[in-house]
Amino acid sequence: MNIKYLTLPLIAATLVFTGCASRKPAAEITTGNTPNGSTTVSTEGLSEDAALNAQNLAGASSKGVTAANKAFLAKRVVHFDYDSSDLSNEDYQTLQAHAQFLVANANSKVALTGHTDERGTREYNMALGERRAKAVESFLITNGVNPQQLEAVSYGKEAPVNTGHNEAAWKENRRVEINYEAVPPLLK
């Protein structure tokens, strides 16, 4: 038997076992309270991403959350008409609630991701997705949000939520998602 046919599986097995042996076991997320009443999170043993997510969830804020705007803050998607970056009247209350929360929570950060349906070229859709994200960003800034809290990004047609090829699917995909990256609203 030829030695090169034995070497490749041996190297692959060594890499797999070495990688598994160096992984940390799953860590438990524990929380506690400080004397001033704020919540602390132990992220010992967590990966960097998992630690950031645990801190963000523990750092959720109820400041700026009212009974009146709670339902609007729960909505994290704004939809658009075909080939448009104009905000609809239905979305103003949602965006106003997010603006109010962001103004009250200066440590909150949001990524505004613009999306389009599958029709049109990749380049056109990337530009349209950016116009949509910038329209939401502009509304939030006009309503008092610090621009440093916002990041507008376009995914164009690359990340559909509905992979159908009809008007209902396209309508769902024409959107901007409001993704809290730090200090999301506490909606309990």
Automatic annotation (TrEMBL):
Pfam family, one: OmpA
Chain's role: Part of the Tol-Pal system, which plays a role in outer membrane invagination during cell division and is important for maintaining outer membrane integrity.
PANTHER family for this protein: LIPOPROTEIN YIAD-RELATED (PTHR30329:SF21), STATOR ELEMENT OF FLAGELLAR MOTOR COMPLEX (PTHR30329)
GO biological process, one term: cell division
The UniProt record lists the keyword Cell cycle: yes
Membrane topology according to the record: Lipid-anchor
Residue ranges occupied by any OmpA-like domain in the UniProt entry: 67-184
The protein's assembly and partners: The Tol-Pal system is composed of five core proteins: the inner membrane proteins TolA, TolQ and TolR, the periplasmic protein TolB and the outer membrane protein Pal. They form a network linking the inner and outer membranes and the peptidoglycan layer.
Signal peptide coordinates: 1-21
Annotated protein name in UniProt: Peptidoglycan-associated lipoprotein
Record family assignment: Belongs to the Pal lipoprotein family.
Keyword Membrane: yes
Species of origin: Acinetobacter venetianus (strain ATCC 31012 / DSM 23050 / BCRC 14357 / CCUG 45561 / CIP 110063 / KCTC 2702 / LMG 19082 / RAG-1)
InterPro entries the UniProt entry points to: Bact_OuterMem_StrucFunc (IPR050330), OMP_bac (IPR006664), OmpA-like (IPR006665), OMPA-like_CS (IPR006690), OmpA-like_sf (IPR036737), Pal (IPR039001), Pal_lipo_C (IPR014169)
Localization, UniProt: Cell outer membrane
Domain of life: Bacteria
GO (cellular component) term, any one: cell outer membrane
Main subcellular location: membrane
Protein keywords: Cell cycle, Cell division, Cell outer membrane, Lipoprotein, Membrane, Palmitate, Signal
